[in-house]
């Protein structure tokens, strides 16, 4: 059995689909399963059992001997949430419990960390274990992920293989339910349909022109391929960046979305909302040398290829993958 937590969410449901396409149907799906907007994400997918997140640790203790791997994708990911207790419960302590059970039953554990751990990028974007205690995440979400990464590396007992994946800006199908936290591509298409225009956040720093804030945008189809590759190849345990290794601007992203819709770009700017302005990342770019050195040789979707596939094959008709 293979377990996917966060299975009704964005990345989790895409991983379920990818595993189904590879022939895996003996999947145990873990989530809350009470968000109606997530229901379409699991339509047409094959799996024998769903478990509520709160019931999963006890289930794993009883069934761990038959589990081949736990893909722990589930997490509280709202970067505007300020209640530290929520992140302590869902991102930190819950993951510690799964780690301990996976260690006991010798189950490989692949879990979602985040590029939010890098904060403003003062120390670069290297998945180097030695810099974790120097990182300064900009919000409680990023801190919860960094706190767990630090804790994991301090443990004398560990699963036989484990990997913490520092997801950069993931985009792609099955994020319809994410609202404000959905990718800018998703919001660009919605705004274009409603008004024919796209409004990007204005820069509030003199060293960045409006629209030139840049991120490492990675297509979800690449993310799930890396998850599976790590499970099958089990390189050295540790933290791995998961981006493309190339930062692209939000201007590029919006322009390419217009092009995928066969429209001329019409882009304006609005102030960055006050509640995220002070903690806004102006640049991220994954150093992908560790994953490459571990043997991952697949090419990543370019932003042009990823946006074209996402817009034309999914967003245009609100299809899920």
TrEMBL record:
GO BP terms: ADP-L-glycero-beta-D-manno-heptose biosynthetic process; carbohydrate metabolic process
Biological pathway: Nucleotide-sugar biosynthesis; ADP-L-glycero-beta-D-manno-heptose biosynthesis; ADP-L-glycero-beta-D-manno-heptose from D-glycero-beta-D-manno-heptose 7-phosphate: step 4/4
Catalytic activity: ADP-D-glycero-beta-D-manno-heptose = ADP-L-glycero-beta-D-manno-heptose
Membrane-spanning parts: none
Family: Belongs to the NAD(P)-dependent epimerase/dehydratase family. HldD subfamily.
Domain topic, free-text comment: Contains a large N-terminal NADP-binding domain, and a smaller C-terminal substrate-binding domain.
Protein name: ADP-L-glycero-D-manno-heptose-6-epimerase
Protein species of origin: Flavilitoribacter nigricans (strain ATCC 23147 / DSM 23189 / NBRC 102662 / NCIMB 1420 / SS-2)
